[in-house]
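Job type: complex structure
Entries:
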Amino acid sequence: MNPLLTPTENVDVDTRWQQLAADLSEAQILFSDVIPGGCHWSWRLPRGTTLRLVTQGGGANLSLVLYNARNPLERYNMPDSLKAQHTAHYGRGHVLMSDMGCAMASITADSLGWHDPLGLLLDGARLREKYGEHPYQQYRNGMYRSGRDGLLIEIGKHGLTRRDLVAPVNFFSKVSVDEEGRFRFQPDHAPAGSMVELRLDMDVIVAMSTAPHPLDPRPDYAPAAVGIVAWRSGPAPADDFCRHFRPEGARALHNTDMHYLA
Amino acid sequence: MTATAIRIQESALDPARALTNVVLPAGEPWLHEVKQGQTLRIVDLEGNQAADVIFYNRHDTDEHYSVTDTLLHQGGIYLTTGSVLMSSEGRPMLTIVADTCGRHDTLGGACAAESNTVRYALHKKYMHSCRDNYLLAIQHSDSGLTTADLVPNVNFFMNVPVTGEGGLKFDDGVSGPGKYVELRAEMDLWVLVSNCPQLNNPCNAYNPTPVQFLIWG
């Protein structure tokens, strides 16, 4: 019996991995959780862990940033990742790269085909302007939270300040760009049960917020919860899909491997 | 009378003449400067609200309120009229010059999402907390304060008695609506506040409420 997966009288361990990862064996599971809509959390996790993210309702958004746990000066870099892979969207096969040319995480499974990498983030001023005041005093833990404040709180726990906050990946959101360069937010992009898997290619600090995408046109603040399962996948094998999806991803994975010489 | 016995002292200062008059709603953070010689009043507007406060030297934030220096200096654990809040460099930071509550906690610390999982249940982790407030306030400031500066704080209006048998209790507050504490700044300060959102224990009587800050020159 694994005490990390089995609740006791005193330790109310989450067991929703049983639903979120019914296809995996219990021996593979590390933990599960469900982040309520608008909330935030962070973890320090080792290379070879895969995070499965599953939306618990329609209209979810999950903003995610990554830092090298061994040296947090190395962090996820949006432009380097996009230009290397000639992409303005993320899906299975894409690699989230650092400013040091290393693969930090790879998208190994995906039910949607499009996650927004353009990095827009809801801040406190835009939150209040769009949704009105909804503070703790009246609404307690139903208060509205912004994605920027959530990520600032989480990276702060790891000694990082607002100068360290980088453009996040917005999983489960789709933002395309028209011929004149204008954003088009795709409503109803991610139905309940949408899933993406992110394999961690290095030891990382990962911070996430489930606050709404700033371009989400819905007038109500109603971000859906997102389930998370961390499981032992091991690092990218030689025949890994992401190693063969694009040559740039292969080289970024190689550069990370060079930091984990056994 | 011992050094930390309740000492009630009213103030003659007129709120109409205060330079700063801020009502901080329940669950909100606040980071503000107070200059040497100014007087800061904290008002428990509706009673039994915990105001979690840390003080820093405005010009050298490595120097902060130190619970241990303060308790050693006064020979006991409760803050009341006459208590001097000491810094990590052993210097007076503030003196309590008036207090209609009479007892404030030095040992209870501030709530955090992580410590809530330890104290109550793992599923409490997404509830709002004082440390999230502290982190938000310093992240949005140019104070240079970081997570490493979140040292043990004062809980104004909170009652955390230590029993003769060595127990620590979280009791209903001795405070009440409109009670206040007033402190004279002995150096230029940053005042970092979380108006505590804790709902899992009686530190706020399970009903977090606003507190008021007044500053006189």
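Summary: DSSP finds seven helices and twelve strands in chain A. The first strand of chain A starts at residue 29 and ends at 35.
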